[in-house]
Design brief:
Layout lengths: L9 H7 L21 H11 L9 E5 L3 E4 L12 E10 L5 E11 L2 E9 L2 E3 L14 H12 L3 H8 L3 H8 L7 H11 L3 H8 L4
Antiparallel strand pairs: 1-3, 2-3, 3-4, 4-5, 5-6
Helix pairs in contact: 4-5, 6-7
GO molecular function: DNA binding
InterPro entries: Lambda_DNA-bd_dom_sf (IPR010982)
Protein name: XRE family transcriptional regulator
Length: about 200
Amino acid sequence: MEIVNRTLTAEVLAALTYWPGIVYGGQKNPPDPVDIMVLRSFFNEMLQELPWWNRGWEVSHVKPGIPSEIASDYARSATGFTEVSVPGTVSDGCGDGLPFVAQVRFERDRLIRFQAKIGDMVIVPATAPGGRPEPHPFAAVFTRLMDLRGIPTRDMAEQTGRSRVTIDMLRDGCINPDAAFVKEIAETLDMSEADIRAIAGLDE
């Protein structure tokens, strides 16, 4: 199932970019009204593609979105995508309901990311295939830090006193470093131990 990388309709784009409470350059204030109820169908379609979704529950109400990123070519805030949080409600049609927030990231008319929060549970797209655990978030940051410094796996293994297999497992998100490993990584990356602990999500 591929939720992202799909084309958004003109009606959905208009609803996602309808922000009557936001003032920013390039938008009419107040903006012309649009039918934001098209987002109900859009979000329900997205949720119903989840094989485990209870189809008795539907997005029953939405409010205008709140942008956290707005596509712009302005030199000091250039970004190619827009990200919007759309609050609302999901209900089962029998009087039970839960607060709902959809976070949608798109570039022009292409959907890049979709995340839904229902009650206190967040539904995010998986990065690993079905049946396999998700990689630890530390992996992507650790890999990027190594790449930025031009440190190959062999050198990281030698300088931390670990095997290449262990470094590969760390880069793949199969493991998370313990306190001793954090200290070795920090020394090799020339970073503070506190920063690496924070990135790894370890308690003080």
